[in-house]
Design brief:
This protein has 233 residues and is of the alpha/beta class. It contains ten helices and nine strands.
Length: 233
């Protein structure tokens, strides 16, 4: 039994969001991320030939042999959602409320993290699917997220947009399940691996995670928040 994308995100804590010049670059970067210990990657529809890149990366595994979970972001229309799922996407992400995508995801039984910015948009997305993307997160800051988690304590919240890698810890401490980062991750393989190793927590019991990640972490020491790995829809 493979783990749910929400559980994998909660364990990984940092979600790379790829906007590359072409599909080949997206495949190369995804391959490098997986080799560095990343398991969950988001490719966006802004990448030329993105559907082909998704199809080429879905069969890959991470450094520990676990199947990659490749999602597609910036999905705002039903046609994009259909193409993404046909290519094997593990989940869909929109930057703002997207009723067409929501309906298609429901029909296909797909995981859809719907975007929002206002408390009403975010709460509505959480009410439908248990999760929401907060975008553009940098406009509001970690304090905004902290206020949201006070009233949505069980929500899977993914702040994304304008967040630098050095700021990830602040967002996790404010209550983020995982933080979307589009730029600034190192290219050097060792440095990239160190980023993910510093954040990684235990995943769910069914995902076949490596033994070194299976310890019970006192997450407050590293990020201020323990990852949620149970009860995902």
């Amino acid at each position: 039994m493979s783990c749910h994308p929400y559980a994998a995100l909660a364990a990984q804590r940092l979600l790379p969001v790829l906007r590359t010049a072409d599909a080949d670059a997206a495949v190369r970067r995804t391959t490098a991320l997986l080799a560095a210990g990343c398991r969950v990657v988001e490719l966006t529809t802004s990448v030329p030939g993105w559907a082909g890149a998704v199809a080429r990366t879905v069969p890959l595994a991470d450094a520990h042999g676990r199947p990659a979970l490749v999602g597609v972001g910036t999905v705002t229309a039903a046609g994009q959602a259909e193409a993404a799922l046909d290519a094997g996407a593990a989940f869909l992400v929109s930057p703002y409320p997207a009723p067409e995508v929501r309906a298609l995801a429901a029909r296909r039984g797909a995981v859809f993290v719907e975007g929002g910015f206002t408390p009403g948009e975010i709460a509505a997305a959480v009410g439908r699917a248990g999760a929401a993307k907060i975008f553009p997160a940098h406009v509001a800051g970690p304090g905004f997220l902290r206020s949201l988690t006070a009233v949505l304590p069980a929500a899977v919240l993914l702040p994304t947009g304008g967040i630098r890698p050095a700021e990830v810890g602040d967002w996790l401490a404010a209550g983020a399940t995982a933080v979307g980062v589009g730029r600034g991750l190192p290219d050097d393989p060792a440095e990239l691996a160190a980023v993910f190793a510093a954040l990684a927590g235990p995943c769910c019991a069914g995902c076949g995670e490596p033994r070194e990640h299976r310890e019970s972490t006192e997450s407050g020491e590293r990020t201020g928040r323990a990852p949620r790995t149970e009860g995902y829809r």
